[in-house]
Amino acid sequence: MSDFNVNSAVFPVILCGGSGTRLWPASRESMPKQFSRLVSEHSSTFQDTARRVTDEATFGRLSVLTHTEARFIVAEQLAEARIPADILLEPERRDSAAAVAVAALHAARVDPQAVVLILAADHVIGDARAFVAAVEAAAVGARAGHIMTLGIEPTQPATAYGYIHPGEPLPASPGTYKIARFVEKPDRAGAERLIAEGAVWNSGYFLFRADVMLDELEAHAPAVLSAARAALENAARDLDFVRLDADAFAQAPKTSIDYAVMERTRHAGVLPVSFAWSDVGTWDAVWSVLAQDESGNAVRGRVELIETRGSLVHSEGEQVTAVVGLEDVVVVSTPDAVLVSSKARSGEVKTLVERLRAKAYPEADAHRRMYRPWGWYQRIDIGERFQVKRIMVTPGGRLSLQKHYHRAEHWVVVKGTAEVTLNERVVLVHENEAIYLPIGSMHRLSNPGKIPLELIEVQVGSYTGEDDIIRVEDVYGR
């Protein structure tokens, strides 16, 4: 496990365990919103968050807490952004209190008084310099023993955010205040009243000394702290990841850090800030942070509009998405699902996803393109007794040594060179060449080259489900 740079002021920890179902169908369990390029064409919000905390004059080594299923996406996106980090894996989701406890314990191993910054992976911030300046200002209060949060000055009476009432000024940190009280998500009238009273949005960012947070967890949520401590002490190294102990972590009560500590501690403080901020929790919020044309439309992908106003149209893949004569709508088109909603009711997409799950729609959670540690695969067609996939293997990528009981496979290489293990034989298959893998044969696919390997896989048999895979050896430990 890598050490923090104890000479740096603030040690950032990104929590990225959410699934982002309100942004379905672009965001799903298999590729949550924080890893998707919903706001920028060039990077995800997770990558943008990581980039904001790379200045070595202010920040130490980054840590990321994520669900074990997202580990390879996290590692790939960090590598793409060239940002080193410790990646700690939660075996299951236990909400933010357990994650914050692990972060504090992780930092305290090197420096008990390390100042830790907790960040969400899916927030959009308009001014990165203003954010860093706010962190530096709030860190003054954290060093003095306060558990600080950033309070966003409201721009509208939002009902999707919690609010914070600032209290008396904190003498040790100019511009900061004690937190008088927290207010859960209000209705519109309540939000208007809170803003008139000087309340700010609860951003979900926290800064604290590790020892202070551990003391407060011990006082207010000892079961959370005990489980987190055991999970970290019994953690195992797995490739470049640290796996928290599953049995220990499962004992942590499922609760938020707001409820477990922030609403109970006497050390809570807030720094009001005014930079542009959004947690892009709904499609309406995504529309608000994207560039808009003269008619108020925000578009992504291959889109054509006629007499359409105030709308978000998001199109993925090669298909064209056309909208005629609509106002204030959200249209999201992906290769296997289409969402059409009013902007005002786009927050109800989460309820829609729950209904799709109840009816066992695979599109509720799985994309047509599924990412794996070695690359990705994408379904092209499926029918009775067959399935066709497009497969991409990154340079150096290697699938598991496996066999199938119910299907044979045909691989046709369209780009690069494949190294194929077939029972006792290892062969190279070049572009425009094919190989046949009989039912029950032991086989493995690798990319020994320097460019991505792409191939078409045709499966034929009585069953082509993903669970008809018997892994004999897997370098990724699945």
Commentary on this structure:
The chain has three domains: 6-278, Spore Coat Polysaccharide Biosynthesis Protein SpsA, Chain A (Alpha-Beta Complex); 291-359, no CATH class; 369-473, Jelly Rolls (Sandwich), CATH 2.60.120. The longest helix has 16 residues, at 128-143. It starts with 9 loop residues before the first strand and ends in a 5-residue tail after the last strand. The model is unreliable at 1-7 (pLDDT under 50). Helix 3 packs across helix 7 and helix 6 (210-220) crosses helix 7 (222-233). The strands form seven sheets. The chain has a six-stranded antiparallel beta sheet with strand order 20-21-22-29-24-27, with no helix packed on it. Strands 6-9-7-8-12 form a five-stranded mixed β-barrel. With 478 residues, it is of the alpha/beta class. It is built from eleven helices and 30 strands. Strand 18 and strand 19 (337-342) form a beta hairpin.
